[in-house]
Amino acid sequence: xxxxxxxxxxxxxxxxxxxxxxxxxxxxxxxxxxxxxxxxxxxxxxxxxxxxxxxxxxxxxxxxxxxxxxxxxxxxxxxxxxxxxxxxxxxxxxxxxxxxxxxxxxxxxxxxxxxxxxxxxxxxxxxxxxxxxxxxxxxxxxxxxxxxxxxxxxxxxxxxxxxxxxxxxxxxxxxxxxxxxxxxxxxxxxxxxxxxxxxxxxxxxxxxxxxxxxxxxxxxxxxxxxxxxxxxxxxxxxxxxxxxxxxxxxxxxxxxxxxxxxxxxxxxxxxxxxxxxxxxxxxxxxxxxxxxxxxxxxxxxxxxxxxxxxxxxxxxxxxxxxxxxxxxxxxxxxxxxxxxxxxxxxxxxxxxxxxxxxxxxxxxxxxxxxxxxxxxxxxxxxxxxxxxxxxxxxxxxx
Length: 398
Ligand code: B12
Ligand code: SF4
Ligand code: SF4
Hints:
Layout: H1 6-19, E1 24-28, H2 33-44, H3 52-56, H4 64-67, E2 73-80, H5 88-93, E3 99-100, H6 109-127, E4 133-136, H7 144-150, E5 155-156, E6 162-163, E7 171-178, H8 188-199, H9 211-215, E8 221-223, E9 226-227, H10 233-239, H11 249-252, E10 255-257, H12 261-264, H13 291-295, H14 299-305, H15 315-329, H16 334-343, H17 349-367, H18 370-393
Parallel strand pairs: 3-10
Antiparallel strand pairs: 1-2, 2-7, 4-7, 5-6, 8-9
Helix pairs in contact: 1-6, 15-17, 16-17
The structure holds cobalamin (B12) and iron/sulfur cluster (2 copies).
Subunit structure: Monomer.
Pathway: tRNA modification; tRNA-queuosine biosynthesis
GO cellular component, one term: cytoplasm
């Protein structure tokens, strides 16, 4: 058998990844040592909240060969998820509607991407018999963004998400850990990732912009390139099964599953590509549905309707908890008060506490005290600014 030409193989891998529907692919080595101290600092500050799995694997997260012995390269892939007609501004504007993060309107990406990565692995085996690989998608033990930066897929912006100048940031990441010496991808992103490590300063296309830091409703981006998950709407509506901190509830507005604000304000998302995958288009009208309609769902209906959706993973109680808060943030309505009150007898203690909070908000609004009105206007001010920016800057997706 002739020796393997890894350069040619890498080019073939890129072609196969396109055939499999990935939006981009890059290859990196496995040295993440420069990120170890950042990860340690993040954990030491408690920014992971109750995501214990983030700390459990320790520095193995930054050491791919400890995670999968034999690994010498990581193939990182990008998959664009922005659905057609995302209706970002129109839904954020209507406080009676439910805003669900646009990545979660269709099918769960984990299975879909892992299957495609496995298929990519099979293709490689056909050309290279002595080959082992393992796919990862959003797996806690992997530092996906630093790997993707090194592989040249983009740069980690000040909101910490990966951005690409031609594709914005509406995409998922996934990896294939491999044990063959593929050539490492080199481009402006991988070069600046290396430079950042050498000089200990980040130079990238964020420049002097701080729009994401300013627009974040809960001030979760505590410094450039650092998110305190405990303050992030994505964390307390998806990851955490606990009570939502009271001071953050009014800032959630109508966002009941995740949050897109820091990406919506980012000027690079003007260049975002629409997803080609039918799987990421909205199902069950989740892109344009009222809070009251969702709150009326039974647990059985929730489980059946959301088969295959990432939303199902949070469970029915967290789902009700989130909608109750959003109903508390909606304008006063007798119908909302009735719906909240009627849900109480069958709800868990956690949900009852959130319903009670929502009822107090509704009753305060009914009395229309000046203090309440001023507080609400203040909370909605940032969202209104975001809506104007989306309508002006992202008309296709507004
Ligand atoms: C835990 C987690 C969360 C947490 C914490 C988020 C965070 N920013 O750390 C919560 C629940 C809040 C979250 C939210 C979201 N997440 Co999330 N999340 C993850 C997960 C599992 C781990 C991230 C992690 O390790 N964080 C810890 C920090 C320390 O690591 P890091 O950010 O990767 O590494 C950074 C540091 O080294 C730092 N850094 C580098 N240089 C420098 C320099 C200086 C000076 C400093 C200070 C720091 C610094 O930047 C590195 C790269 O960003 C990843 C998947 C994975 N396994 O990686 C998905 C992932 C990051 N999430 C993703 C998504 C889509 C989201 C949401 C957009 C979902 C939503 N719409 O609600 C939000 C966005 C919120 C935000 N602004 O981050 C995608 C991001 C895709 C992309 N384009 O980048 C990922 C990659 C999942 C995937 N497979 O696609 N997420
Ligand atoms: S996802 Fe929302 S809450 Fe989280 S950092 Fe971005 S803007 Fe802030
Ligand atoms: S909004 Fe500005 S600072 Fe934030 S990620 Fe985008 S370009 Fe960077």
